[in-house]
Amino acid sequence: MSPTERNQEKEPPPTQRKSFAAYPTPTYSASASVPYQRNVWDRQDRWNLVVLTLICAFTRLYRIGRRNISSWDERHFGRFGALYVNRTFYFDLHPPAAKLLVALSEVMAGHNGTFNFKGEYPPYVNYKFMRMFMALFGIGLAPLAYLTCHQLNMRRRACVLAALFVTLDNATCIMSRFILLDAPLLFFTAASLCSVAGLQNSRHQAFSRTWWRWLLFTGASLGLVASCKWVGFLTIGLVGLYTIDELLNMYSDRLAIKTLASHFLARVLCLIIVPLVIYAACFKVHFVVLNRSGPGDSRMPPAFQASLLGSPLGHQPFTVAYSSQLTLRSLHSGSGLLHSHAHRYPVGSQQQQITCYGHSDTNNDWIIARPQGEGFNDTSSAPVPVRHGDIVSLMHRQTKTMLHSHRAHMAPVSTKDYEVTAYGKLSWKDRNNNWRIEIVNEQSKVANGELHAITTQFNLRHVSTNCLLSAAAVKLPSWGFRQTEVSCSREGNAQSLSKLWVVEKHVNSRLPKADMRSMVKRSFLRDFVQLNIVMARSNNALIPDRDKYNHLESDAWTWPLLLYPMRMLGSWKKGDIKYYEVGNPLLWWSSTICCVLLPLQIFLYFARRQRKAPAVWAPGEALHYWNGAKLLWGGWFMHYIPFFFFGRVLYIHHALPSLYFALLLLAFEIDYLCRRILQGRLQNVIVGTWAVAALAVFCWFAPLTFGYSGEIEQLKYRQWLPTWNLYRDKYMV
C-alpha cells in the first residue's frame, strides 16, 4: 500500500456502517451514500497547511509597501475607512462589512482619519500595516483551498496543488496587496465553499455537533460574503441550489416527513436567518458608527439626515408658513429634490424644464405662496401656517417662474402624464399655477393638519387638471441632463412613493428653529431598506459607455481568455512603480478548458451508462466524483455566467471569485485523471510538473505583481497577447 493510500480511510462495508437519523442505511447505489474514501486529518496535513500558508504569505507581503502613494481604489476604500474613524456618514454602493475591516485596520494602525487617501501617504499614516492587514485575507485563501479539497476527499497531493494554484495566480495575489475589498470577498467566498464541503462530508452525521458546526459556519460565511459585496449573493445562490439538491435527494430516499422537516428547518435557520441577521447587523454597526453629517447625507431620507450630528437639517423651523423658502424631496428612491433651471424642453410646450436633482443646489429652492401672491412677504402680521387642503403656488427662487402644468402637452417620457413646467409670474392670475396641499401621513406627534418640515408626507394636486405631481425616477434624455422627469400623473395610488413629497429644508427668519432630532422618528428597518434601494440604483447607474474607450473595463467573455488585463495606475511612465493585473495565463487558460470540458465529460459518462458499457468507475467512485465536481463547477458557473446579464461596468477582478472555483476544479480533474490513467510515482511527477510550471509562470510575471519601476520596454516579451496593453496601448492617444 502506498503512503498516499494509507492516508485515506477505507470505506466500511454497507452492513458495518452506522445509520444516522438523517438517512436510511446508505448503500453505494443510493444517492445518499458516503464517498468511496474518506480523508483522515493527520500531522502531515498540519505541516502542509503551515508551509502553504507561509508561501502564500510571502507572495502577498513581499515588498507590499514599495509604492507609498494611494493606488487604484485605495483612494476610495481607504477614505471610507477614514470616515468611519471620524464617524462621518458617507454613501457607497457596496455593503459595509469589508469597509468596516478597512476601518479596523486604520484604527489599529493609529490613523486619526485626517488623510483623504489622495496622493502620497504622509509619515503619520502607517499604510504598510493597513495593506498587510487586508493581505491577511488573501493569505487565508491557501489554507482554505487545502481544507476544501481535503473535505472533498481529494488526494493530499491534489490538495497541495490546489492551494499552490490559488497562491500562484498573479491577479489574485495583486488584489490582495492593497487596501481593497476584493481580498475579504474572496476569503469569505472560499470559506463558504469550504464549509459546504465540510457539511457534505458530514451529511451522514446529521444533527451531530460536527454537522451543526459546519452548517452554522456556512451560514456565517454566507452572511459575511454578501456583506462585503453584492457579488457574494452569487455564493448564496450556489449554496441554495446545493441545499435544494440535497433536500430532493432526501425526499427521493423516502425519509420520514418529520426528519425531512427537521432538515428543512435547520437549513432555514442557518442558511437564511443567520446570513440575514449578519447582513443586517453590519448595516446596524454602519449606522451606529456614522452618526455625523457627511458627503452621503443627500442619498438618505430627510428624517435620517436630520438625526445626524451637524446636519443642516437638524435645526430649522418646524411648521411651514407662507413666504417660506423650501426644498421639496420626492419620497421615491432615486428621484431627488424638485429642481428647475434656465433650460427649456425641446418638445411639447418648450417652456422651462422641471426635474428632480439628487444633489444640493440653489436651483432646488422654492418659495411657497398663496395664489397670485396674496399677502406675499407681509411682515405686518404673524406668519400663517400652510394647512391641509390649502391652495398654494410655488415660485422658483432663482428664475422667479411658477410650478405649472396644463392639459395642452404630455410629459416627454411618461407620455400618459401631463407635462410640468416652470412658467409665469407670481402675480399672474393663472389657475395652472395652483396646487392643493393634501397631507397623507404625519410622522411626528404633532398631527394638527399643518404642514411640517421633514415629518409631513403630502401630495401636490394640480387644481385645474386634478393630477398629482409625480417623480418616478424616470430619467430624461441628454437635453434634460439625465435628471429625473417630473410629471403630473392622472393615474395610480395617491400614496405611492412617486407622488409623495416632503419638505426637506425650510427657511423662514420669522419662525423659531426647532431641534428636528426630537421631532423625527428613525427606524433601522426603514433606513436599512432605503439604503439598499439606493445602493441598487447606484449599481444600475454604472453603465459602460460603449462609444468611449476605457482601458480599465472589460467584458465577461474576455476574462477566461485573459484578453484584457488591467493597468492599476493611470501613469505608465519611466520611474513610476507599475502594477499590472494580469492572471497566471497557464492557470487561467487551463482552468477555462477544464470548466468547458467537464459537462462533456459528464455527458460521455452517462452515455456509456445508458448504453450499458463496461463500468469506468469503481463502486462509489462516480458519486465521489459527482459530489466534488458539482460544487466546484457549479461555483464557477454561478460566479461567472451571471455577469453576462449585468448591465453595469465590469473589470477583470470581477472574475476572481469564479477563478477560485475553476482553480480548485483544475486540481480536482488532475487528481482524478492521475488516478484513472497513471500509476505509482508517475502521478507525483505529473502533479509536480503542474506545480513547477505554475511557479515558473508566476515568477515570469512577478515584476508586474510586486511593482516594476524600470523601462516598460524591458518587459515587452511578457506581453503574450496582442490585446494586452502592458507595453503599449494602441487605443490610447
Secondary structure elements and pairings:
Layout: H1 3-6, E1 8-10, E2 37-39, H2 43-61, H3 74-86, H4 97-108, H5 127-139, H6 141-151, H7 156-167, H8 170-174, H9 182-201, H10 209-228, H11 232-252, H12 257-289, H13 302-307, E3 315-317, E4 325-330, E5 337-344, E6 352-357, E7 366-369, E8 391-396, E9 403-410, E10 418-422, E11 435-442, E12 456-462, E13 468-470, E14 484-485, E15 487-489, E16 501-507, E17 513-515, H14 524-541, E18 566-567, E19 580-581, H15 585-610, H16 621-640, H17 656-677, H18 681-706
Antiparallel strand pairs: 1-2, 3-17, 4-7, 4-16, 5-6, 6-10, 6-14, 7-8, 8-11, 9-10, 10-15, 11-12, 12-16, 13-15, 18-19
Helix pairs in contact: 2-5, 2-6, 2-7, 3-4, 4-5, 5-9, 6-7, 6-9, 7-17, 7-18, 9-10, 10-11, 10-12, 11-12, 11-16, 15-17, 16-17, 17-18
